[in-house]
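Figure 3 (text version): structure tokens given as input.
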């Protein structure tokens, strides 16, 4: 009825809204330049009407699987699946939302084989075109921490907050940062959970410290320099969970090593070399190398074998290899104190340690939009053929 009145079209039927015809309409409307201009204008109207403050934007990327065939130049390609289905072709959906309401600002659909890192700058560029404002804090995951992305954000007078991946913050570098903490030379600042009731007592959720570094990169073929803070933070809840997982892995590794000592029907007696290889395999499988100490003992005994068929009775020397495992208390304590640590980067000088941690903890806000995609209301996954015809791909990828 609404379309009949607006379009002044008589005789519209339900059959006129089939999937194929809907795909044709969406293809006509899905012109990049026209749609981006409409999206930007719509966002500005929404922000102005509801007087929404533009201080923080969250960006994240997800995937949507499909059962369509993979073509050479198609949008659906095989790639790293966040839905744990690497055997199915997929698309990638990059989305930005306004904090704290989670209102979607921009959405981009690209090929499923694209890496996440280069998708952040185009999405930030679309947000800036839509908002026409600087000084916005962009919050994302470790894929947003690429140096080029952080350089782009700083060069356009904006801010970013994201954790550093292990590639940029190796374990050895993190250990060097934590040495002053173990030596008592670096004080830690506690981060408290926001109180929901006045009667509650403040409960620490994390602690850490920060320091400032100067970075250099090239932006638009020109050298650019900026400063950012490194926030070295330990999540107490995560550290407790990781310690519990470590204890479980140690218990499983010890039980598996004890099983190597069992003898009987169906069990192969291992020699020293085979036992050493089996122990090393278990240490690596349960990730307890250096924490679980092992010791092998060799026992030699004479075994009398009775005569059987054409074999005469004989006495042979048999060597039995036994492995024993125990905790290395010093290594275990060192491993436990290193659990739960993560390094964040932020170039906003006004954002302190507590505000940064609390801001990143609300990252689930952007996940709400992805949950809508996969939920009962929209339910875009798995993507079927009529939906495929209505999707577009960015020219840059």
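Below: residues designed for each position.
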């Amino acid at each position: 009825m609404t379309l009949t009145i607006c379009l002044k079209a008589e005789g519209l039927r339900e059959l006129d809204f089939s999937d194929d015809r809907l795909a044709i309409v969406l293809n006509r409307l899905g012109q990049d330049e026209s749609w981006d201009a409409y999206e930007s204008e719509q966002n500005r109207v929404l922000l102005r009407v509801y007087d929404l403050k533009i201080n923080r934007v969250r960006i994240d990327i997800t995937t949507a699987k499909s059962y369509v065939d993979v073509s050479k130049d198609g949008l659906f390609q095989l790639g790293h699946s966040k839905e744990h289905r690497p055997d199915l072709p997929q698309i990638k959906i990059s989305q930005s939302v306004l904090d704290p309401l989670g209102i979607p600002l921009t959405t981009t659909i690209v090929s499923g084989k694209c890496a996440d890192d280069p998708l952040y700058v185009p999405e930030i560029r679309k947000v800036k075109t839509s908002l026409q404002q600087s000084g916005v804090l962009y919050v994302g995951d470790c894929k947003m921490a690429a140096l080029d992305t952080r350089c782009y954000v700083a060069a356009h007078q904006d801010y970013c907050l994201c954790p550093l991946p292990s590639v940029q913050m190796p374990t050895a570098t993190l250990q060097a940062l934590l040495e002053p903490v173990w030596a008592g030379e670096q004080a830690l600042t506690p981060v408290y959970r926001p109180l929901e009731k006045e009667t509650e007592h403040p409960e620490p959720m994390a602690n850490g410290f920060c320091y400032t570094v100067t970075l250099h990169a090239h932006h638009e073929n020109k050298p650019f320099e900026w400063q950012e803070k490194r926030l070295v933070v330990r999540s107490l809840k995560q550290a407790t969970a990781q310690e519990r997982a470590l204890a479980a892995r140690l218990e499983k590794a010890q039980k598996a090593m004890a099983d190597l000592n069992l003898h009987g029907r169906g069990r192969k007696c291992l020699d020293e070399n085979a036992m050493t290889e089996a122990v090393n395999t278990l240490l690596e499988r349960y990730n307890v190398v250096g924490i679980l100490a092992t010791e092998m003992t060799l026992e030699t005994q004479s075994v009398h074998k009775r005569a059987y068929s054409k074999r005469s009775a004989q006495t042979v020397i048999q060597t039995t290899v036994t492995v024993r495992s125990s905790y290395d208390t010093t290594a275990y304590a060192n491993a436990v104190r290193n659990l739960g640590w993560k390094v964040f980067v932020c170039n906003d000088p006004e954002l302190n340690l507590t505000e940064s941690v609390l801001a990143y903890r609300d990252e689930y806000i952007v996940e709400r939009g992805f949950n809508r995609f996969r939920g009962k209301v929209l339910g875009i996954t798995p993507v079927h053929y009529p939906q495929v015809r209505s999707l577009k791909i960015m020219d840059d990828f």
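The CA atoms of residues 253 and 286 lie 6 Å apart.
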